[in-house]
Amino acid sequence: MSEILALAGENLISPIILSFALGLAAALARSDLTIPEAVAKGMSIYLLFAIGFKGGVAVSAHGIDQTLILSLLAGLVLSFALPLIAFALLRVMTGLSHVDAAAVAAHYGSISIVTFVAGTSVLEGKMIDAEGYMVAVAAVMEAPAILSALWLVARSGSGAKMDPDLIRELMLNGSIVLLVGSFFIGAITGEEGLADISAFIVSPFQGVLCLFLLDMGLIAGRGLRQSKGVLGLGAVGFAILMPLVSATIGLGVGMLIGLSLGGIVLLMILSASASYIAVPAAMRVALPEANPSIYLTLSLGVTFPFNLTLGIPLYLAVAQSVTGG
């Protein structure tokens, strides 16, 4: 426990976490601090491209093997299965309607790429290597959870359907296209390509991530302010319990398929994170009757800060303890 608290303490005083805390505090204090939407979008594009490109370079150096294939399959299965677990917990812990519970569950089967990036930064800071192809696993885990949520709603007889336009929108989601595309660019160009643009995607990365998390803190704080009275203790408790359950499952799967310590931690982080970009956009189209103030506040206002401050160091400490790494 002391090791976990020490890791959490180190994480809490990092520039990344403190930037998020600044944005959160500013929003809760009703400051007029804002990040222009175009700037925030630009930072998001930069971060996705950089992490995808570096992941592709890592695969180029490592090569394709059985563990890579198993990791992609594991990500696919996890993204389909985790919403079913989340839905069951929500029905027990909260009084949410069937549709709202399904919409929330979808967020907890998909992933938060920013939490993933923060996790990779923590591993890099501790000199722990991880499989570069985990970024491809992240891309695989973006959309399947949405299908699970729609199945849960359709099973209840609400008539929710998987519209062909929605399928196309999911497959061509900007974050997926950029992650996968930059991953292949990095895999094709390799170390030489990385050397050519390292001044752009390596050195500025941490600084851009700090500013992006400042904006995330502002968004999360505003969401918490606006959701007063909407969420009960059961829903908030779910938003903290579910990441712990998912991370435990990710730990078991990562060990089963033979990932390294860093790869196991990243799979735990991906499993524990909750989407607040791709899934909300899909829910607005597929389940317009679901309440956005519920699913956005839980994923972005509760689970996201929990993972950043306590979750990532906890997952790392547990993985080190279990694997002996």
Task: Summarize this entry quickly.
This protein is mainly α.
- Could you give the order of the helices and strands? HHHHHHHHHHHHHHH
Please report the total strand number as a whole number: 0
Give the fraction of residues assigned to helices.
over 70%
Q: Give the termini separation.
A: 16 Å
**Beta-strand level of the residues, as a percent range?**
under 5%
- SS element count, helices: 15
SS-derived structural category: mainly alpha
CA radius of gyration: 19 Å
Largest sheet: none
Shape field: globular
Mean pLDDT: 87
Uncertain spans, ≥5 residues at pLDDT below 50?
none
Structure, explained:
The protein is an all-alpha fold and 325 residues long. It has 15 helices and no strands. The chain has helices at residues 2-12, 15-28, 37-62, 66-93, 98-107, 113-125, 134-140, 144-155, 164-171, 174-201, 205-226, 233-257, 261-272, 278-286, 292-323. α3 crosses α11, α4 (66-93) runs parallel beside α8 and α4 packs antiparallel against α12 (233-257). The model has no long low-confidence stretch (mean pLDDT 87).
Q: What is the topological layout?
A:
Blueprint: H1 2-12, H2 15-28, H3 37-62, H4 66-93, H5 98-107, H6 113-125, H7 134-140, H8 144-155, H9 164-171, H10 174-201, H11 205-226, H12 233-257, H13 261-272, H14 278-286, H15 292-323
Helix pairs in contact: 1-15, 2-11, 3-10, 3-11, 4-5, 4-7, 4-8, 4-12, 5-8, 5-15, 6-13, 6-15, 7-10, 11-15, 12-13, 12-15, 13-15
